[in-house]
Amino acid sequence: MDTVLFIVFAAVAVACAVNLILQKHPISSALSLVGVMGSLAVLYLLLGAEFMAVTQIVVYAGAVMVLFVFVIMLLNTGQETGGGKSWFAQVAGLPLLLAFIALMGLLICGPLMPRLRAVQFGSWHGGTARAIGRAIFTDYLLPFEVTSVLVLIAILGAVVLARKEID
User: Fold this and answer.
1) Cβ atoms within 10 Å, residue 9
2) Contacts of 6 (CB under 8 A, 6+ apart)
3) Of the candidates 65, 81, 63, which has an alpha carbon nearest to the alpha carbon of residue 27?
4) CA–CA gap between residue 38 and residue 21 (Å, rounded)
5) What digits encode the pLDDT tens for the residues 38-84?
6) What CA–CA distance (Å, rounded) separates 89 from 96?
7) What are the b/e assignments for 49-78, b being 16+ CB within 10 Å?
8) Fewer Cβ atoms within 10 Å of its own Cβ: the N or the C terminal residue of the chain?
9) Residue 59, Ramachandran bin (φ over 0: left; ψ between -120 and 50: alpha; else beta)
10) Any idea what DSSP says for residue 114?
11) 3-state class of 124 per DSSP?
12) Model-level pTM?
């Protein structure tokens, strides 16, 4: 049953991702992104990472998507107008895509295959809030603090840019 659910929600995630790229209206793209994030949350649940699944829904599908939709509405963007595609993209796009897929398949099935093992759904028990908090504040304290400083710098930069526009 886990394998069937994995295949179904992986297919939904890929379909929503393709729809995200192909949509011409930004709101439809944002809704497709919500579908991708919801499918990823279910995949996290299948792997036993309950905390990551809830975080995926609350933070990304909730807060970040509300912010995206707010910015889209604020900018009042309409439907995307089709621009002229370059001749190189039209001629070489599909062959380069197929070559990339073949190369990735060879890399994954070649040197990586002996080291891969089958996924046991629900066997990993490291996805709890306690385990993640312990890892963040012990093993990954420096990257966590560096990330928080970078976010603080980004917030200050946004305030400075917004202040210049007001003046």
Assistant:
1) 18
2) 43, 46, 121
3) 65
4) 17
5) 999 999 888 888 888 888 898 887 888 888 777 777 776 666 666 66
6) 10
7) bebbbebbbeebbeeebeebeeeeeeeeee
8) C
9) alpha
10) G
11) coil
12) 0.62
Integer angstrom CA distances of residue 139 from 52, 109, 135, 136, 143? 18, 32, 5, 6, 9
Q: Tokens 């917030």 identify what position?
A: 155
Distance (Å, whole) CA 28 – CA 159: 30
> What is the average pLDDT across 149-154?
91
Six-digit token string for 54: 């809830």
Helix ranges (H only) for the chain are 2-22, 26-47, 50-55, 65-75, 87-109, 129-137, 141-166
